[in-house]
């Protein structure tokens, strides 16, 4: 394995940025951010152009982030209408259904315009207007993109809930944002199996404090429990509305969407993104990070339920007039060649996926890749968690045949778009490093305890960002104090990412993973507190502590220590019952991989659980537990070690 891969000269010549351009633009972007973004804010069509550019403060107690504040625009018009004259007949969205044998759909910009206008008029019929919240609980179908853009068109705020989440998780999100309408489908086919989404919505509404109307997309045609009141079929309503819907003039700082994400406490946070800054940043990162050019076919394999789908399936690519692929299925159905079959079939130029998918496919060997012609690939991307050098190398050699640059993009739901990433024509890559900051991003490494800036290279500590960028989240929905407390309190004057990192002698960033009680399971963020509160909600559970442990495919697996109520007997049956319970409470991604029954948990005398010890035992690294003398009952540790579940 080589240490470093230079961009190839041919690519660098044709790219939006070669090394000299990156260096120059980066310097400009941090020396005078307002001037830099005044220029790049122009990539959008403004109804009323902005005159104010950057008004941001990271001062704890007064955190306020505003970009392009006095400008007005419409996000949907930027993603659709402004392309009509030049590329009305170009494909905007290619939809690839779950079944490989079913026909793909090609939706042109003109067709997209008609679909979105109709959808927007249906929402208006249901009483949705500017500022109202609409929850989307949908499969990966074109209507998910139509619904997002329809909300944007009329100034409503969408909040997508991943279709893999449980009815309870859905109900919590509907309640937190007080949704007026929930958009769902009859069923969601994925990997050959169908989830009855409408059933889940019905269950969620039983436990919800709100009474939203439910708009249903017909995807499978299966039988559903259609309620006499409050349920509407999309196709029936569409037949009654016109396809003329002028876009609303929105302020740059009007909210575009809310997306819930796990943190270190039990309750997911509603991350709020606004219109102008978010769209400019999503579009610009999409263009530069993937070196996207007119005519390219771009494929991000994420689900629109995650921020990656928002920024790099819908908003970034469509703002750039791209052809973007929406894939309903999974990487291994009907077989492990599906990704590559789709790449060949639609002549994909940029392909963007997660390390967990790469590792899963790596395990199936090279034959499923070699079956297909991947010669149209120009850039390969990865996101979601640190990529191990073995997976990076496999991606590079087997998929990219050693000729396609890899962009390892580090970012978060909160950041709206890439913050640390190579640019294909500019940045020499090192397997496992997200490399260098994007334009306008000022990363700093801080000493975890003291918060002091670690100057010079190499450096190690926690990762923070010293100044705002247009794609940054603005607040936590309904709780600005929580926003400040989560991101700006611990290290004053900085945005704290929650990640640890190392900066090497060349100034390259290497993300080492979360330093808070958040774990990363298959590239999905899971607050350990959320899993714990699901476990203790079970009648047989007295106490629970959840930690991550290294997992070959998922990156991290979920390891739960459970103390049972008096009189309850540990058994394999009960383990399964508890795992299924968590799956039902939160969703399949939260299901514990390993459960250990523990008569007691290691606690300090003041009653704080010592997670450091639990992490070590879960890692099977129990020889180096460090100081256990401050524990109230040191002997519980012996039992935990003896009965550890991860014996590798
Ligand atoms: C966390 C954010 C951003 C879209 C997907 C996840 C981890 C993300 C990388 C990367 C190392 C990464 C971080 C981050 N992460 N990308 N390229 N290298 N770690 O969004 O659910 O908000 O999670 O994912 O730990 O904090 P998210």
Automatic annotation (TrEMBL):
Residues 530-608 form the AMP-binding enzyme C-terminal domain. GO terms for biological process: acetyl-CoA biosynthetic process from acetate. It catalyses: acetate + ATP + CoA = acetyl-CoA + AMP + diphosphate. Keywords: Acetylation, ATP-binding, Ligase, Magnesium, Metal-binding, Nucleotide-binding. CDD domains: ACS. PROSITE patterns: AMP_BINDING (PS00455). Acetylated. Deacetylation by the SIR2-homolog deacetylase activates the enzyme. The modification N6-acetyllysine is found at residue 608. Residues 22-79 form the Acetyl-coenzyme A synthetase N-terminal domain. Its cofactor is Mg(2+). ATP binds at residues 384-386, 408-413, 499, 514, 525. Mg(2+) binds at residues 536, 538, 541. Its EC number is 6.2.1.1. It is an enzyme of class 6 (ligase). One of its GO terms (molecular function) is acetate-CoA ligase activity. Belongs to the ATP-dependent AMP-binding enzyme family. Catalyzes the conversion of acetate into acetyl-CoA (AcCoA), an essential intermediate at the junction of anabolic and catabolic pathways. AcsA undergoes a two-step reaction. In the first half reaction, AcsA combines acetate with ATP to form acetyl-adenylate (AcAMP) intermediate. In the second half reaction, it can then transfer the acetyl group from AcAMP to the sulfhydryl group of CoA, forming the product AcCoA. This is Acetyl-coenzyme A synthetase. The gene is acsA.
């Amino acid at each position: 394995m080589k240490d470093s891969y230079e961009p190839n000269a041919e690519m660098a010549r044709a790219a939006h940025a070669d090394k000299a351009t990156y260096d120059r633009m980066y310097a400009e972007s941090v020396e005078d951010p307002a001037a830099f973004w005044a220029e790049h804010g122009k990539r959008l069509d403004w109804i009323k152009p902005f005159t104010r550019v950057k008004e941001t403060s990271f001062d704890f107690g007064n955190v306020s982030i505003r970009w392009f504040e006095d400008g007005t625009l419409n996000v949907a018009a930027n993603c659709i209408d402004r392309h009509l004259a030049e590329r009305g007949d170009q494909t905007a969205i290619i939809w690839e259904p779950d079944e490989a044998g079913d026909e793909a759909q090609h939706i042109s910009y003109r067709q997209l315009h008609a679909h979105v206008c109709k959808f927007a008029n249906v929402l208006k019929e249901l009483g949705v207007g500017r500022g109202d919240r609409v929850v989307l609980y949908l499969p990966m179908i074109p209507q998910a993109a139509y619904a997002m853009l329809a909300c944007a068109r009329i100034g409503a705020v969408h909040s997508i809930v991943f279709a893999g989440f449980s009815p309870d998780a859905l109900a919590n999100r509907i309640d937190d944002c007080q949704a007026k309408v929930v958009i769902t489908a009859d069923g969601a086919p994925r990997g050959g199996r169908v989830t009855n989404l409408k059933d889940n919505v019905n269950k969620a509404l039983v436990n919800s404090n709100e009474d939203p109307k439910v708009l249903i997309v017909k995807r499978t045609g299966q039988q559903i429990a259609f309620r006499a009141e409050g349920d509407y079929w999309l196709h029936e309503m569409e037949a009654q509305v016109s396809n003329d819907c002028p876009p609303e003039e929105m302020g740059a700082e009007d909210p575009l969407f809310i997306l819930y994400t796990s943190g270190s406490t039990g309750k997911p946070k509603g991350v709020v993104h606004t219109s102008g800054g978010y769209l400019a940043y999503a579009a610009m990162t999409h263009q530069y990070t993937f070196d996207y050019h007119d005519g390219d076919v771009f494929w991000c394999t994420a689900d629109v339920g995650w921020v990656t789908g928002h920024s790099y399936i819908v908003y970034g690519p469509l703002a750039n007039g791209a052809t973007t692929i929406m894939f309903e299925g999974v990487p291994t159905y009907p077989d492990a060649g599906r990704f590559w079959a789709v790449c060949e079939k639609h002549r994909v130029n940029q392909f963007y996926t997660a390390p967990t998918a790469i590792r899963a496919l790596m395990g199936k060997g090279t034959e499923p890749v070699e079956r297909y012609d991947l010669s149209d690939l120009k850039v390969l991307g990865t996101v979601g968690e640190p990529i191990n050098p073995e997976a990076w190398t496999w991606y590079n050699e087997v998929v990219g045949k050693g000729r396609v640059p890899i962009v390892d993009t580090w970012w978060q739901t909160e950041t709206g778009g890439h913050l640390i990433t190579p640019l294909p024509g500019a940045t020499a890559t090192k397997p496992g490093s997200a490399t260098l900051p994007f334009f306008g991003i000022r990363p700093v490494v801080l000493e975890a305890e003291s918060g002091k800036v670690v100057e010079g290279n190499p450096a190690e500590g926690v990762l923070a960002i010293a100044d705002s960028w247009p794609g940054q989240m603005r607040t936590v929905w309904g709780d600005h104090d929580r926003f400040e407390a989560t991101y700006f309190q611990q290290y004053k004057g900085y945005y704290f990412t929650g990640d640890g990192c190392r900066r090497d002698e060349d100034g390259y960033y290497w993300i080492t993973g979360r330093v808070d009680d958040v774990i990363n399971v298959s590239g999905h963020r899971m607050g350990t507190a959320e899993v714990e509160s699901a476990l203790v909600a079970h009648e047989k559970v007295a106490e629970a502590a959840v930690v991550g442990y290294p997992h070959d495919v998922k990156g991290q697996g979920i390891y739960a220590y459970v103390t049972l109520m008096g009189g309850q007997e540990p058994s394999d049956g009960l383990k399964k019952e508890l795992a299924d319970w968590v799956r039902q409470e939160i969703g399949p991604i939260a299901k514990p991989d390993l459960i250990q029954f523990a008569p007691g948990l290691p606690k300090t005398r003041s009653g704080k659980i010592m997670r450091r010890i639990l992490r070590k035992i879960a890692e099977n690294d129990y020889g180096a537990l460090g100081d256990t003398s401050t524990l109230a009952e040191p002997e519980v540790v012996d039992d935990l070690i003896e009965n550890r579940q991860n014996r590798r």
